[in-house]
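Let us practice reading a record.
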Amino acid sequence: MSESSAAAAVASTAGAGGWRRATGIAGAAIGVMAAGAAATVAVERMTVGRGMRKKARLALDAAGPYGTLRGAPGTAYADDGTELYYEVDEAAGADATDDATGAAALGPRRRRLFGRRAPAPVTVVFSHGYCLGQDSWHFQRAALRGVVRTVYWDQRSHGRSGRGVAQLKDDEPLTIDQLGRDLKAVLDAAAPEGPIVLVGHSMGGMTVMALAAQYPELIRERVVATAFVGTSSGRLGEVNFGLPVAGVNAVRRVLPGVLKALGQRAELVERGRRATADLFAGVIKRYSFAGRDIDPAVARFAERMIESTPIDVVAEFYPAFTDHDKTAALALFAGLPVLVLAGVQDLVTPSEHSEAIAGLLPEAELVLVPDAGHLVMLEHPEVVTDRLADLLTRVGAVPAGTTVGTYGSTSGTAQPG
């Protein structure tokens, strides 16, 4: 079935009065998509009443501080006029002496950037994944707060950033290259000078690759290290999300058209999505985390972020992943310190994709985290933060011996932190 015929089939169902009956199914499908999958999955049978589960979700929303960290706000503007929201956390007590020391650690190639005046501090820029937001870096932000200058931003149509103007007004397809240009706009506004460390999770890692492909001189002149977390340089059309290959291929053929049709009925679908919140939560947990003992408040935090992504945005972004291929751009990171980290049980961007990236960058550090899923930075924050801290120490962004802040634990027996 073609994309247009799939859309027509959905429209026909709507015309026959089937939209209301279909919203529960649509909500489940959206949950799968928001978690990065492409088909329905089995979930556990619920053992408590719907009212009790709703109260539990409200209690979990208030239980932890996840997503509450804020920095100095700023707005960058993409080349199509889209407003891109970012926040900056400055390093505490940074001065020219500290900056000079850090610059010296970066080596002769980097010291040439600074001339005679005091250098700008190293800035670490975090790019988040599909259907998430800058708050997905909560634990790493808590740990690095005050230690190094950091920038967190919301990709277009996500979080506090504006809807993509080119997509909303001009009906242009969303591309990963556009996201790379968006990141360049954020860098120009939030870190116009000085060395940069780029950190990207999932779609955020693809954004970093797209930046490199379009602005190779920026990588050569200013980027001093990069971290790719649970991401891919291409061939995402081959991912089966832990499901039978035949079923995935069938769904993949019709899904863009179905999503497009659902996006045109966004208000009705969102109601169905809310009505199927319990199934939605089960799907998100399966595709976000691998461990059974994930802190329920962390799981609910991830659910809230994904829930906040409207169905039309989900539909808008999905086709871009099939077209994504930035394997050639990885060569631009050769010779730089690079961290490649992934969860061994990631069903969305399987760890084999991270291994492929590391294979093209033989000097990169490859870290595969057992018992970790796609949202490894929330599931095992201590591992991700430790490896990031080591990367920053190696490039002089964090002085050797510096102790990063606490980052808590996400096990079900731990307190939120």
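A brief commentary: The first helix runs from residue 3 to 15.
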